[in-house]
């Protein structure tokens, strides 16, 4: 199986910083990432990510900025 094959099934994964990616379904998910419950062909997974990942900033940066705004 190849990741370049358009029929390859991927999983949508997310890390602790709430950054999304896709990972081939036939490979073990790397440490630090977890499945979000969405899988399918590459196009479908990327469309899903476009819908749900609306703030590209890492979670730690969003939290830092929120704390800075609260202190003002």
Automatic annotation (TrEMBL):
A single GO CC term, please?
cytosol
Q: Which residues form the MbtH-like domain?
A: 1-51
Task: Give one GO biological process term.
Answer: siderophore biosynthetic process
Under PANTHER family, the record lists: ENTEROBACTIN BIOSYNTHESIS PROTEIN YBDZ (PTHR38444)
The protein's name in its UniProt record: Antibiotic synthesis protein MbtH
Give the lineage: Bacteria, Pseudomonadati, Pseudomonadota, Gammaproteobacteria, Methylococcales
